[in-house]
């Protein structure tokens, strides 16, 4: 029976990064992945392909609607969707092969097949050549998540599909109905709207992006509406079904809505199927999430879990940090993730990014705060780019001035939030950001001005 120091099941950002860190720390590590390509949901059918299509569709949209403002006049602009999809596939292939290369370089043993936990210290892999039994003192479960189903929605994976299908369509739908105004609904809804689809987003709650700062979410909704997306809030979808020519979606209390394609995006659920967790005694909560302690230990000694499989936001970078902390804890006895400093980015146009607490959370926890906001409209670089929508909003503790939360709607918000995450990680005050020299002219000056605004002394407004 092959024996390793550590066996990891799942090679997504949680699992593969944990494997690399374990190898750096000198462990004999093996990683089991059932798909031929490494990298998990994120690299194969998540973060990377969605961002490739968001970039391509944004260029098309810019060429059609904004180039003329810059004095760049195109006689006609056309989409070659097949080329766009091929480019996406090439990016995915190069990155997943890159992970395979990193495994080789770091001497991580790769098993291709489905992994199953047999008991503490024992794992089986169902490979094409038969079953392989592995022995390991430590096992990390990192099998990620799957699209959440919705009662009444019949997925045929053609007319009615999930994000995986919506990333691969070979034609622009005439009318796309998106179920759920969360991150996936808005990102992929934006892609297809930019490419020419009529997009209707049906959302159960009375707002888009539940969980994110509501002021920023309201402003974002207005911006998406200007781009042609239609939102029907307080609309609970109870059925969706493919027909010969298209599909029909039914909202509670309404007639069926006819469309060409449907994207179901009502969240994701932990992927524990076939992992043998129940028999091995690994405790799950009611939602099927693997229960772990502060150090990622499950109820079975020597078995750990990370990423989308456990509590917390389902984000690739959160999974990576957990993988690193989990391995470091196993090897060195230390390892920690600061959940207060995990950024969250929605890659729409404008982008939406946040880190730390929202105003709603601070109010609910009775934490006194001061707020500073600054609009991109008053920033020279934003003007030059022609992207002036949105603002940076900084929330700092009323007495200590410590930065508690930052919320951004605007160009490159996903890059700007990195400075704010570092500020929270270092326990910085808004005064620290305000007194840091920011290059001119850059979008980052909006962060500095928002920090000055916390103390009522923004300069350029
Ligand atoms: P996963 O990436 O899901 O990896 C789990 C791996 O385990 C998979 O490769 C799976 O094949 C494998 N596996 C499962 N069961 C077994 C088994 N029994 N044996 C062997 N292997 C198994 N997050 C961001 O931070 N930024 C984004 O921009 C972003 N965009 C997204 C866009 C979309 C469309 C989707 C769907 C998700 C997106 N996410 C994004 C979320 C992100 O993909 C996940 O949070 C992240 O992939 C979770 O990492 P993980 O390692 O926990 O699991
Ligand atoms: P989500 O939780 O972000 O949004 C789901 C939405 O569906 C919610 O607004 C919810 O109110 C709504 N909903 C639920 N039931 C409904 C019903 N019956 N009718 C109408 N609306 C309904 O989920 P998602 O967009 O599917 O994304 C899943 C996960 O993937 C997220 O947790 C996210 O963290 C991750 N993800 C991240 C990124 C990123 O970081 N940029 C991108 C894509 C996905």
Describe this structure in words.
The protein is α/β, with parallel strands linked by helices. It has three domains: about 5-145 and about 270-335, 3-Layer(bba) Sandwich (FAD/NAD(P)-binding domain), CATH 3.50.50.60; about 160-265, FAD/NAD(P)-binding domain, CATH 3.50.50; about 340-455, Enolase-like, domain 1. It has helices at about 15-25, 40-45, 45-65, 80-105, 165, 185-195, 215-225, 275-280, 315-330, 360-365, 380-385, 415-425, 430-435, 445-455, and strands at about 5-10, 30-35, 110, 115-120, 120-125, 130-140, 145, 160, 175-180, 200, 230, 235-240, 245-250, 255-260, 260-265, 270, 305, 345, 350-355, 370-375, 390-395, 405-410. Strands 1, 2, 3, 4, 5, 6 and 17 form a seven-stranded mixed beta sheet that branches. Strand 18 and strand 19 (about 350-355) form a beta hairpin. Helix 1 runs parallel beside helix 9 (about 315-330). The chain is globular. It starts with a strand and ends in a 7-residue tail after the last helix. The mean pLDDT is about 100. Nicotinamide-adenine-dinucleotide binds near residues 182, 185, 203, 237 and 267. Nicotinamide-adenine-dinucleotide binds near residues 180, 183, 210, 267 and 346.
Per CATH, the superfamily of the largest domain is FAD/NAD(P)-binding domain
CATH C-level class of the largest domain is: Alpha Beta
Structural class: alpha/beta
Give the rounded overall mean pLDDT.
98
Tally of DSSP helical segments: 14
The CATH topology of the largest domain is given as FAD/NAD(P)-binding domain
Task: Give the overall form.
Answer: globular
- Kindly report how far apart the N and C termini lie: 69 Å
Number of discrete domains: 3
Bound molecules: flavin-adenine dinucleotide, nicotinamide-adenine-dinucleotide
CATH architectural arrangement of the largest domain: 3-Layer(bba) Sandwich
**Beta fraction:** 15-25%
Model regions low in confidence, pLDDT < 50 over at least 5 residues? none
Helix content: 25-40%
Largest sheet: 7 strands, mixed
State Rg: 23 Å
Say how many strands there are.
22
């Amino acid at each position: 029976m092959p024996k390793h120091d550590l066996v990891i099941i799942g090679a997504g950002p949680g699992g593969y990064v944990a494997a690399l860190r374990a190898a750096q720390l000198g462990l004999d590590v093996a990683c089991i992945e059932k798909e031929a390509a490494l990298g998990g949901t994120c690299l194969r059918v998540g973060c990377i392909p969605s961002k490739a299509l968001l970039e391509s569709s944004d260029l098309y949209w810019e060429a059609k609607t904004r180039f003329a403002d810059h004095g760049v006049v195109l006689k006609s602009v056309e989409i070659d969707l097949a080329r766009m999809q091929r480019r996406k596939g090439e990016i995915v292939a190069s990155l997943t092969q890159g992970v395979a290369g990193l495994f080789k370089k770091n001497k991580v043993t790769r098993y291709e097949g489905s992994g199953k936990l047999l008991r503490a210290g024992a794992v089986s892999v169902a490979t094409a050549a038969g079953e392989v039994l592995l022995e390991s003192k430590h096992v990390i479960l990192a099998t990620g998540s799957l699209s959440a189903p919705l009662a009444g929605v019949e997925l045929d994976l053609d007319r009615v599909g999930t994000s995986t299908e919506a990333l691969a369509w070979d034609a622009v739908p005439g009318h796309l109905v998106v179920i759920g105004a969360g991150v996936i609904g808005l990102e992929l809804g934006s892609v297809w709207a930019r490419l020419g689809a009529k997009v209707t987003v049906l959302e159960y709650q009375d707002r888009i992006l539940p969980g994110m700062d509501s002021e920023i979410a309201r402003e974002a909704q207005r911006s998406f509406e200007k781009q042609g997306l239609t939102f029907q809030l307080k609309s609970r979808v109870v059925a969706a079904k493919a027909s010969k020519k298209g599909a029909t979606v039914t909202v509670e209390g309404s007639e069926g809505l006819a469309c060409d394609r449907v994207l179901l995006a009502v969240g994701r659920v932990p992927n524990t199927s076939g992992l043998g967790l129940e028999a091995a005694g690994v405790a799950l909560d009611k939602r099927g999430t693997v229960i772990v302690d502060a150090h990622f230990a499950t109820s079975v000694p020597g078995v750990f879990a990370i990423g989308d499989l456990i509590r917390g936001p389902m984000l690739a970078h959160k999974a990576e940090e957990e993988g690193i902390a989990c391995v470091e804890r196993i090897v060195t006895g230390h390892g920690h993730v600061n959940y207060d400093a995990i950024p969250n980015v929605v890659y729409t146009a404008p982008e939406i990014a946040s880190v730390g607490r929202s105003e709603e959370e601070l109010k609910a926890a009775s934490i006194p705060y001061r707020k500073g906001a600054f609009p991109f409209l008053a920033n020279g670089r934003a003007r030059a780019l022609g992207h002036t929508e949105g603002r940076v909003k900084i929330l700092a503790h009323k007495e200590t001035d410590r930065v508690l939360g930052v919320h951004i709607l605007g160009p490159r918000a996903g890059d700007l939030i990195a400075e704010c995450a570092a500020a929270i990680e270092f326990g910085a005050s808004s005064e620290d950001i305000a007194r840091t020299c920011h290059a001119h002219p850059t979008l980052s000056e909006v962060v500095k001005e928002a920090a000055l605004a916390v103390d009522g002394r923004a300069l350029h407004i």
